[in-house]
């Protein structure tokens, strides 16, 4: 399955079965985490079979059910975009392995969450992982002209990258980002005020790279 198809299939899932993560999947996922940590200078950690962080409490919007596995997205302070970029890279690897996920910023118990946080680091957020009761649903997306300077006649790779960016998960689906192209280079920036917009920007930049077929050299 190609990465564009994986992005299209990946939706936020908050209700999980009690099936444990398969050992083979854990091994592959850990290899991807290790690669991301080396490349991005992150300290992302996979926590398995741990129910405390998502222990059921008073029902609130976005609360997960049955989650016993998660990614602790940890890194040096000031690396919000890297947290999003490399976190989403791991999330899409999980989707490829048949593991559902949901980025979670607020509705988990921070004091119960595992994962070592070293000096100078912070836990940005977590990603719930597991085998979902369902596969989630599509989220509403903006038109590419709302989030970019795209116009008819622009390169196909640019349009494909923008379409991939719109598949990216963002906080409360706010999609507060904008792309502008100058020749073969692209500038991506936060558009307006919102929650976790720098993390979101890292996520959408990774999606854009996949969709466009360009590497990090595309960024201006």
Commentary on this structure:
This is Nitroreductase. It comes from Suipraeoptans intestinalis. It is a single chain. 31% of the residues lie in helices and 17% in strands. The chain is an alpha+beta fold and 220 residues long. The protein has two domains: 3-130, NADH Oxidase; 144-218, NADH Oxidase (3-Layer(aba) Sandwich). The strands form two sheets. It has a four-stranded antiparallel sheet with strand order 1-2-4-3. A two-stranded antiparallel sheet has the order 5-6. It is globular and about 50 Å long. The mean pLDDT is 94.
The CATH class label of the largest domain is Alpha Beta
Hey, roughly how much beta strand do the residues contain?
A: 15-25%
The helix count comes to 5
- Number-wise, the strands total 6
Overall form: globular
SS-based structural class?
alpha+beta
Q: Architecture of the largest domain in CATH?
A: 3-Layer(aba) Sandwich
Major sheet details: 4 strands, antiparallel
Low-confidence stretches: none
CATH superfamily (homologous) name of the largest domain: NADH Oxidase
Succession of helices and strands: HHEEHEEHEEH
**pLDDT averaged over residues:** 94
Q: Please, how many domains?
A: 2
Fraction of residues in helices? 25-40%
Q: What is the CATH fold-level name of the largest domain?
A: NADH Oxidase
* Distance, first to last CA: 30 Å
InterPro entries: Nitroreductase-like, TM1586_NiRdase
Pfam families: TM1586_NiRdase
Organism: Suipraeoptans intestinalis
Domain Putative nitroreductase TM1586: 3-212
């Amino acid at each position: 399955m190609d990465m564009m198809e994986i992005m299209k299939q990946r939706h936020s899932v908050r209700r999980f079965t009690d099936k444990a993560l398969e050992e083979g999947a854990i091994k592959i996922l850990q290899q991807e985490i290790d690669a991301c940590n080396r490349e991005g200078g992150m300290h992302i950690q996979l926590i398995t079979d741990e129910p405390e962080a998502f222990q059921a409490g008073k029902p609130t919007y976005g609360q997960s059910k049955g989650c016993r596995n998660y990614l602790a997205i940890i890194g040096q302070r000031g690396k919000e975009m890297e947290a999003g970029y490399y976190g989403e890279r791991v999330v899409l690897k999980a989707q490829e392995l048949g593991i559902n996920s949901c980025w979670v910023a607020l509705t988990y118990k921070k004091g119960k969450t595992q994962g070592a946080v070293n000096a100078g680091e912070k836990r940005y957020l977590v990603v719930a992982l597991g085998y979902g009761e369902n596969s989630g649903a599509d989220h509403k997306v903006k038109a590419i002209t709302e989030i970019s300077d795209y116009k008819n006649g622009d390169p196909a790779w640019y349009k494909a990258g923008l379409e991939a960016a719109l598949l990216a998960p963002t906080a409360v689906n706010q999609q507060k980002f904008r792309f502008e192209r100058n020749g073969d280079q692209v500038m991506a920036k936060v558009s307006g005020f919102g929650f976790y917009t720098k993390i979101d920007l890292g996520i959408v930049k990774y999606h854009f790279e996949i969709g466009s077929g360009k590497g990090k050299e595309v960024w201006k």
